[in-house]
Amino acid sequence: MVTSDLGACEWFVWDLRRSGLIDRGPLDQIVGEFLKRNPRAEAPSLAEFLVDQGTLTAFQAERLLNGKSQGLVLGPYVLLDAIGAGSMGQVYKASSKNDNNHYAVKVLPRRSMWNVRLARRQVRSFGSFTHPAVVPFVDVGTAGGLHYLAWPLVEGTTLEAIIQHNGKLPPNQVALYGVQIAQGLTIAHQNNLFHGLVKPSNVMIGSDNQARMLDFGIGSLLVENEGESLVDTMSTANTLTSGLDCASPESIMEPTNRTPAGDQYSLGCVLYYALTGHVPFPEGSAVEKMMAHQTKEPTPIRELAPNVPPGLEEIVQRLMAKAPEGRYSGCDELVEALEPFLGDLNQIPGGIPGGSRAGAAGLGNRSSSHMPGLPGRSNPGSRITLPNKPSPSSGARPVPKPQSGPVTPNTPIPQSPRSTASTNLPGRASFQLPTPDENDTGAVAPINTPPAGARSALPKLPTRGATSAKPEPKPVKTAPPPAPVIEEEEAELADAWAEEVPERKNNTGAIGLAAIAIVLMIAVYIGATMLMK
Question: Is 476 contained in some domain?
């Protein structure tokens, strides 16, 4: 189809071609048939026709009519609709060209490609386990001048929206969501991952009454090495402000200090919100809320919700302890503490997760040690079915497929203080992040490795015969002491010094005489020079 045949729709068809939403051949055929029947049609009519035919979504048509043809296709993802705006950017519903599954794609301002490699480490970490409460971070890439992050799309309503609409929840329902989230955090922490941004708006409740944590992986990106974070400074500040109602005291003092213990505090704030209908510190400015998390105690739960059992209130209080040491040793211990408050699973509002299975089992009052349909402490890696990760066209590495058998949790890395000797980067172990792969192109080089050219910069070692013209007897060499395993350049230097030490020991007299002779020669030279002047 030639441009002159398009009439008033010329600009719209041109933008549609540039968007990459439809291949050129099918697009020309569809537009040609429409214009034959409607030769005087304008762009809005053509856009409406394409939406009715299912060729475009209403969101895509509106963007194109507003002249925004760029950014509708990001790597393998085709944006279908806008589903929310967060502190870090807009979130879209998208389909993948690779597997036709739906994803939630968050679009960020572009920064360096090196930082995208750091984010891909997080993507690979989520390939080692699955859990019903964890929506895994599956892809990151750059396209059209924008960064994008992707997660499988889950349907439901956020806990924040539910409570804003219905008010506080019954204690047994809150205990159910607490157990589900704590079990998800348990397996994540065992794989050296933390959430870092647990809050009511990041907890999605599905139609199956299963709680799922959204934005898993963002918290890790916020604490990446200084100067190499994927997230720009303004987005980081906005994200920290938006999560202030559930931020741990230690993360307020140092925003990069996000740990599994901090996830416990944030979960405590979420449970407080669900039980009372209010965040722990609802009044005051951002600064006043920060100080309250540091120094104040929230209004007791039972003053706001008298029906809450005292034991459940104590659990929330322990989760919200100001010092990390005052909280639980791990989220698996929290699961055991919460389970007695589930009561009769059939009486929980919203039904039992995987309810048909549990109902078929004829469960009444709960008698087993773990909820049906949820992984127990002995098997935190129960698997769920998620869409296969697409192979991104932007060059992102594929995510390893989850193992088919049960997952053996990794031993958590003990926290350690950051070292100032290894540049100003925060230590990965202190944030419970996974150790980078040996072959990872984004891995940081060992700090003890000498820079290129360091060998030539080393001071030249003294050699035999440099201090005396007289021939010396050949020294008897002794075996050098065993040297520790160090870098190659340092090993050479150590060997050279090891050889030199016994030689000087066997020739102490000769070296002393030579030194005296040199001193006398220098004194004579200086004296003669002074006399001549």
Answer: yes
Instruction: Please say whether the dihedral angle defined by the alpha carbons of residues 42, 47, 49 and 55, taken in this order, is positive or negative.
Output: positive
Range of the domain at 375: 159-385+426-431
The answer to whether the beta carbons of residues 67 and 52 sit under 8 Å apart is no
342-350 long-range contacts, Cβ below 8 Å, gap at least 24?
Answer: 342/172, 342/175, 342/176, 342/179, 342/366, 342/371, 343/172, 344/172, 345/371, 345/372, 347/172, 348/170, 348/172, 348/173, 348/176, 348/209, 349/169, 349/170, 349/173, 350/173, 350/205, 350/209
Examine the domain organization and report whether 502 and 362 are in the same domain. no
Of 243, 247, 235, 262, nearest to 323 by C-alpha is 262
Q: How many domains does the chain have?
A: 3
Query: Roughly how many angstroms between the first and final C-alpha of the chain, as a whole number?
Result: 101
Structure token digits, residue 415: 């926290």
Together in a domain, 62 and 202: no
pLDDT, one tens digit per residue, over 424-445 is 333 333 334 344 344 443 333 3
Residue 322, annotated ligand binder?
no
Helix (H, G, I), strand (E, B) or coil at 281: coil
The two structure tokens encoding residue 306:
């008298």
Q: Name the domain boundary from 70, 104, 122.
A: 70
The reported pTM is 0.64
Domain endpoint, select from 70, 90, 124: 70
Instruction: Answer yes or no: are the C-beta atoms of 104 and 151 closer than 8 Å.
Output: yes
Burial 320-352 (b: 16+ CB within 10 A, else e): bbbebeebbebbbebbebbbebbbebeebebeb
Instruction: Give pLDDT tens digits for 341-400.
Output: 998 888 898 888 864 333 333 333 343 333 433 433 333 333 333 344 443 333 333 333
Alpha carbons within 13 A on the beta-carbon side of 143? 25
CA distance 389 to 404: 16
R_g of the chain, CA atoms, integer Å? 33
Give the neighbor-by-neighbor strand order of the sheet with 211-213.
157-158, 203-205, 211-213
In a domain, 175, yes or no: yes
256: domain CATH number?
Answer: 1.10.510.10
Q: Domain for residue 306, yes or no?
A: yes
Q: How far apart are CA 16 and CA 73, in angstroms?
A: 12
Phi, psi of 125 (to 5 degrees): -65, -35
Q: What pLDDT digit, counting tens, does each position of 3-38 carry?
A: 557 888 999 999 999 999 998 889 989 999 999 998
Q: Find where tokens 């996000």 sit.
A: 258
Same domain, 221 and 313: yes
Assess if residue 133 is contained within a domain.
no
Return the H-helix or E-strand segment holding 192.
none
